[in-house]
């Protein structure tokens, strides 16, 4: 065992002597370092410098995005706030879903670690978001992943795909959380910068809500869960080498390592602690570890804290105080426990064989003191670390390439008119990696565990029952279209929201709240900041119009390789509520002879479409027009019809257009259909290419039993939703027959659709 | 009838097993791994999950738990025991069933609706099935490849102890397509697929009739209730 370091930089050292400090290497700017000195009235100790540098980093402080994120809290109506129990700023937002229950959900990025070390990066991404949910007092009940990889043909893509998928599979399955959906997208812009976002959702009784604050002086500060090790401390090694003639290991892994078994035990242990009522405040340890947990708990409670850092249980005794403060070792939590409850706390953690140590106590003073043995190494106002970080007004500039990109419309692309050629195009899109069957990935995830999964992939959204007594359930869908956002970030972000909202609506649920994960390039690039500004404004405006509040989320900047940024990719997650999951609507046809209706109108909108990409390798023009009023009408209509049990299946029309929606609805349960398009062509004044592949918004295909025909059409008319019968289901034929165009054998289509990913990665 | 469900650290499908018992008409009794008192239950389910994080070997540490040891003792006296997935691995590790379970042939975790054939209907957990009935229940595992020596396989086949066999695809490379086994006496049954995930319409596998309406797993739990009544 290595020896505990004794030669530390103390507060009295800092008062006694000023010296050169590696603030630059730690990512701080000159004026930020100066600001720290002003706050403290002296130079920071190396431990304080470590804390400020990590807490003031982009990742923790949101310094570039803060001024834009505010509008998610501002552009809200009283009606939107009504069911919001906890809004933005906490670990995750909390929404009242009725029956005394509340739901908390959030999506977060783990992009950079997942490129360096795909398996652990993706695994710990799941672990981190699940702890955020747990921290609110909720039992985590499901996860979803939003994955964006480079081009399938690139030799490095398979490494990332395999690593990320097995990492999620390894961690999520072992935690016992059903994985109920998500996204997988391939595009060369993500080659050197894959996006690995993870969403988790949890449920709790209203009274179990927990907040991350330490507000009662005398309460104990307890660290429990896994021991603290040297993982995930990246940059802070600068300090170690600066202060010490390094006796410890010199190279620390920058990526954290996950142990899902430890997390599963920690979840059950925490829930038992919550139910026993022995925890006054709780915070998970993720980015910035103990630095973050201590300063945030104290700052949120408006109090201070006294901490003995040598009480932290370590995996490696040679860790320096700076490293301990910064370590991102996984599966750890910090609890604020009243002294009188310590015995009960001990009994529960002992039952679960979870280690803990008392680090200190809450004090009635606006100060965070951290000692290393007898020596004081941190003495700061907690708020200055946790909340009063820098705020940037980064320069914003309209991209030079934007006008040319928008002018390059798909209108000039060659369109086929021969039926055989169009049929070939349909198959080409169906079997393209972005539209093909994703079950090679999703079959590696457990979707059954907990026994409450009412819908999961490949349906349009995931649905989980939260009450076994009443059948009350929640629905979740996430979407993003980087291509649309590249063409127009304001409307692109709105389109992501519209699609997720629609995907929730087609299951029969009522959309209720929003989370987002904003993946962008470098904020130091004014053109990227313009994209960010546009996307956040678009999303906030659209949320207001649809009446769904943003409850929280995450920003991931610096997603770029060299100077080339990814497409702006704001992933939007929508949470819906359904009174009884027994009324859920699947995405595929099931019964014989049901009528198939197209809801909504189709415009000639092929810019940024799957057709333009797959058939012509083209991206340019303007994305489809956003029509939120129609989205709302459509959602209300489906919700109403679902309550009356009129809709057998509903599937949203998005990437790939009507053609792909039809194929997917048929493949879901292997039920064919006879389709005719003449009326669509005539009513909407389209050619066949537009009718089949246009990505016009606010459209859904539904199947309705014959007995409900008249009623359904009357309902559509009353609600002002355009409706057109375009076909009838045909169970026996095993065919999709599109009149005057082509006839597809379902088995053949399935073969191609299902073999794309296995052939690429199997 | 009281049916115990043991929870180990890392067990995941314990609540699902309890629900399945309830739906079948039994009374589920939660049991704790560290407790050798198994509360006079009439039968025991070892549920799925990752007990002890699959450290060492899947099921190896759980096999040493006080509750498991008590189950092993009582199984010899005829206590009906069902091991599902990780529970099957625990049964194998505690030598109640022969052979071993290794990493899936294709190296991936796999979750799918799996068709299997019930080939032995005389066990405590299968007596309500028809001989050779084909059923669909979910399968989800990373270490489900059944292996045994040629001799053991021969014995299992000769004594009709292969209770379930995979149909359509062998999802994990199991020898002889074996999905589940029983002991000599027929009171202990272990299998990789998950009957408890196909016991409630709306949350099971898809069927031709409706989405997620498969409840083929219910008969496992009804069978043991019948066996206990008749015993």
Question: Concise description?
Answer:
Chain A is 38% helix and 22% strand. With 762 residues, chain A is of the alpha+beta class. Helices cover 22% and strands 25% of the residues of chain B.
- Tally of alpha and pi helices of chain B: 5
Straight-line N-to-C gap of chain A: 44 Å
Total of DSSP H or I helical runs spanning 4+ residues of chain A? 28
Low-confidence stretches of chain A: 240-251
User: Any idea what the CATH architecture of the domain at 11-64 and 210-386 in chain A is?
Assistant: Alpha-Beta Complex
Portion of residues in helices of chain A? 25-40%
Count of individual domains of chain B: 1
Q: Care to describe what's here?
A:
The complex is a heterodimer of chains A (762) and B (231). By secondary structure, chain A is an alpha+beta fold. Helices cover 38% and strands 22% of the residues of chain A. Chain A has a seven-stranded mixed beta sheet. Chain A has a seven-stranded mixed beta sheet with strand order 23-25-22-26-24-27-28, sandwiched between helices. Chain A has a six-stranded mixed beta sheet with strand order 1-2-3-6-4-5. With 231 residues, chain B is α/β, with parallel strands linked by helices. Chain B contains five helices and eleven strands; from the N terminus they run βαββαβαββββαβββα. A nine-stranded mixed beta sheet of chain B has the order 2-1-3-4-11-10-9-6-7, sandwiched between helices. In chain B, helix 1 crosses helix 5. The longest helix of chain B is centred in the C-terminal third of the chain and has 13 residues, at 218-230.
